[in-house]
Amino acid sequence: FGGLFMMLAFFLFAIFQETRLQEIGREFLGGQHPGIVAWLRFTLPLLLVVAVAAITNNVFPNPFGASLALVDRAIHVARTYEGDLFALGLEQGENYAGISAVRDQLDGAYTLSFGAVDTATDTVIILAYFDSGVWIRCRLVNQQLSFCEDASRPYTIGLAHLLTGVPLPEDCQGCLPKVSDEWTAWLAEQQVHFQGEPTITRQAAEGSYILMRAESENGRYAVTCWFSGQPRVQIDRCATES
Q: Each residue of 172-224: pLDDT tens digit?
């Protein structure tokens, strides 16, 4: 019913568009003060868009839309509540303890984005990008926060390992991104330029797509790499900066 209503509304709007514009022109350009009818004609497209948006949201609701709000609330609580998050979670029925592992990294403004949605298991991954350069990954199952963790390791520690050959830390779980043999060989060829510790920064992010930049210690050489995927991160391609 909602889809039929939207199609009919736009069809009628298209038919009467020219007449509506003529009436608006006479009201607003005729030297008279526009009345309420003129203003209704003028704002009709906006009213139609608002109505369609409301109907669409009711007919086709986003079952995972609440996940963003849940993570946002967890970050706010972790920042402002000084007590035991586990005890607070038991009291309020929320797993605030799930964000404890990254509680000391949640400084500054941030942006939330969907990283992945698995409808089969009702699992959602939300990424929080902080202006400080930190970003975290929160997993939600059945609209409940499971845990949050540092999401940067494959993009920073993993990329540094591939560029320099320095071994990964023994306790670094999930630090190595998935990478093809072709790009593994290409990154290994860059090791001649990355003899010291590289400076690795996030350049852009949209959902699970991340652009990273690695600059050599002397600042004379740099590469950029595109990453994708959540929770299993992979390197899609890399290039040297000209």
A: 888 999 999 999 999 999 999 998 899 999 999 888 899 999 999 999 999 99
**Beta carbons within 8 Å of 184's beta carbon, 6+ residues apart:** 162
37's CB contacts (< 8 A; 6+ apart) are 27
Token representation of residue 148: 């949050």
Question: Per-domain residue ranges for the chain?
Answer: 2-59, 65-150, 153-240
**CA dist list (Å): 114 to 64, 69, 79:** 9, 12, 21
Express each pLDDT in 31-66 by its tens digit: 566 666 655 665 666 666 666 666 555 544 555 678
